Every structure is written in C-alpha cells, then in structure tokens.
Amino acid sequence: MMDPVLQRHLKGHRGKLTGLSFNPEGTRFVTSSTDHSAIVWTNNEQVRCMRFEAHTDVVNDVCWSPDGRIISTVSKDRSVKIWVPSMLGNSDEFRGHTSNVRSVDFDPTGKKLLTASDDKTVKLWKVSRKQFLSSFTGHTNWVRCARFSPNGKLIASCGDDRTLKLFDPATGQCVHSFYDQKGAGCKVAWHPDSTLVAIALDNCRVKIFDINIRKLIQYYRIYDGPVNSLDFHPSGNYLITGSDDGVTKIIDLLEGRQIFTLTGHRGPVTTVKFSKDGQLFATGSDDCHVMLWKANLDNDSAQNSLYTPEDSSCESTHPAASDQRKLSFNRDVSEAHADDDDESAYSCNKENLPDTSIFVDATKTENFKISDAVEEIIIKLNKPSPKNDPPEAAGLSVSFTGKQRPSPARNSALPRQVPRLSTYNRVDFEEHVLVSLNSICRRMDSFQRRISLLEDILLERS
C-alpha cells in the first residue's frame, strides 16, 4: 500500500469549510463554508470553479445527489436549497425548520432529502415536489447531523443531547438510542454495508456501533481535540477523520489502528470525505483551504467480525476466506470504559496502542502550491430585490471575478452588448445569454412571488 498523495491545494472560500461532497463520478466535488457560499470544484486544473451564492447566512452542509444532477445546501438562515450545478444555476427552496439547519443528506434513490436542525427535529422531504413528508422527534437538544443508511432502511442522527438515535423512515419511530456519558456527537457516518454506524464526538473520541447487536464494537481515543468529521471508505476497511488538532487520520478498521496521519492544514480540520470509488478524498479546514488527495488504499471489501449476543465471541456475519482479514474488535470494550478519562481503563484496547502510523506532511510535497480561485464563476440566486419589492422576489445574475460589469437597468428593453475579448469569447457569450435570461426573469417576478407566498402558506398549514 502506498502513502496518500496530495493532488491539489485549493483556496477560494473566505470562511471555514463546513461540508464536502463528491459527485458520483468523482470528477468534481462541492464544498460549503461560513462565507455564505458553496463552491463546485473540478479535478481538472484547467476548468474554473463555480461559486454558488443564495443563502443569507452560514452554509452548514452540502450534499451531491446520487444521480449527480442536483446539489443541496442547508444554512443558518433556516432554508434548504436544491440547485443545478451549471451556469444557469436553477434553484428551489424548502422551508420548514424554525432554527439553524445543520446537515443535509439524500436517500439512496435521490428522491428524498433529510435535514437536521437546532429545532431538535430531523425532517424528511420529497425532492421533486418540494414536499414535506415527516418529522423525526426524540432529541432534546440541537441535532447536529442526520444520515441515511446506504440501504435506505434506517436514519442515524446525533446531537447535543449526547445521543445517537436510529429512526425507521417508514414509520417515523425511533428504534434505538445509544447514550454517551460525556461527549456530544458532531457527525455520524454509515458503513457501506449498513451494519455499522460511526460517530465523531466533541470529547476527542470516535465510536463505532453494530446496529444489529446494538453494541459498541470499536472506539478510538487518539485525538488532541474534538473530532469534527468522519467518513468510511467504500471498501468498508478504512475510516477517515478530521479533528480540531489540525490532523487528518486514516484508521484501518481491520487492524484497529491508525495507519496514516496527514498534516498540512493550518487550523482545525472541519470536513473530510471519500469519493464514491474511494480513489480520492478531500479535506477542508478552518484555514479556508481545501486539499484533494489520492487515497492509494485497498478497495477490497471487508467481511466484518462482530459480537454475537449469545456468547460475545467473534463470528463473521458472512463466510470469509481463511486468508481474508476481518474487522478488529476487543471483547472487553464497553461504553463505560470508552467514556472513562482514566488511561488505565482503555490502555489495554489495541485500537488505542501507541501511534505507529505513517506521517504525511502535505507542506513538503510539490503539489502544496495553492491554486487560488481567481477566475471563479459566481452564480447568485435569489438575489435581494429593490426595496419596493417583497423579499420573496427572485433574480438571477452572473459575474466573473476580476472583470465585473454593471447589470442592465431594470427598465431596459434590450440586453446590453457584451464586449468581445479574444481570451474570453466563450465566457462573454455565456454572460450574454444569462443577461438575456435576466430580462425574462424580471418579467416573471410578480408570478414567482405569488407562488412562493402560496407555498409558504401551505407549508405552515401542513
């Protein structure tokens, strides 16, 4: 196995990174930030990024749909938006939460959307009709994260009430709750086979639970700060984490130990994510930078060895070849020991052996040079209207950093002529098309406002 290799070092956000998601092909990824925007990046250095601006406050999370057609973002402005990652930038909005919306996730079909909020609820939406379907209640404090299982049969959520809850999306009932004595959950992630769920805690720990036997099977206390984000490798053999100590760690779940420690960010690592094929992963930080890495990890799937309720012994859930590695665990691990601050209580657990991982310092690689998004395409949706128009009015405008031009007057009958520059012929043509679309959009403002008001009224009554 080779070490992970830094591919690109990107700068474009003006605030800390909050979320990250790859498209299904792994050729592009999107990031969200406290600067009220989301940026779509491409692995090709020759293609400019697109900045999406529509929210009026911090964008807390972002998710790319399974079919790759749309992206969803959630914000502190209490809105949920779905949008098309293209120059046209079409956007729709969901409203139903009464407080800060923390996380967003698509179900495996891409037809439903899951959101979690500080209003202590998790909500389910139907994407095609922007229809609210149901609320999952039971948390007694802010809900930080909610995620669908890969098979779509369960929902896992965590929050400041120090619980990890499992919900049945069909019935809306909470089927089980895992309680933590000292740590609140920041993020949850599902194992690819939907039998394990991992939680990142603000007391510097990561825990992994088996949902079939409903027991803690692994925990890691290897961090010097709260763990902000985590994600399973598609093979199920590895877990990547980012924490406040500024370090990204890759854990081999089959051996039960960290195998790589990645440095380079100049602040807490706030978000991490593998691509769908596991070939790449990306990290985002409080330093406003994004790093794209080549993973170089084994893609062979794991056959998990878990507890059985009867004898607490190690048995495989599926028959495995004799030379196949199995998921590491310690039969003596308990939730009480995992929450204990006494070193002697967990020093025997092999997942917490002294650090023997390989250190990879991104600052010492040739690709550490920063690719600054100086020629990004900025797409602004739901731009605020003049004072005499209601806030529900929607507009569309596009500008290009470094060569902004004034928009045509509101009463202008014809779009302005765009100067032709030899270097930006295609860009100017696209801008000309969008200015023409603006002219059409302005004439539809009244109609759009009425539709938006009716939707808000219907949503409140539902």
Q: Percent range for helical residues?
A: under 10%
Unreliably modeled segments: 304-323, 343-351, 383-424
Question: Mean of the pLDDT scores?
Answer: 80
The rounded distance between the terminal residues' Cα atoms is 54 Å
Strand content: 35-45%
**Strand order, largest beta sheet:** 2-3-4-5-33-34
Q: What is the CA-atom radius of gyration, in angstroms?
A: 23 Å
Class from secondary-structure proportions = mainly beta
How many strands appear in the DSSP assignment?
34
Largest sheet: 6 strands, mixed
Tally of helical runs: 3
Shape: globular
Outline:
By secondary structure, this protein is mostly beta strands.
Provide an overview of this structure:
This protein is mainly beta and 462 residues long. Helix content is 9%, strand content 39%. The strands form 8 sheets. A 6-stranded mixed beta sheet has the order 2-3-4-5-33-34. The protein starts with a strand and ends with a helix. The model is unreliable at 304-323, 343-351 and 383-424 (pLDDT under 50).
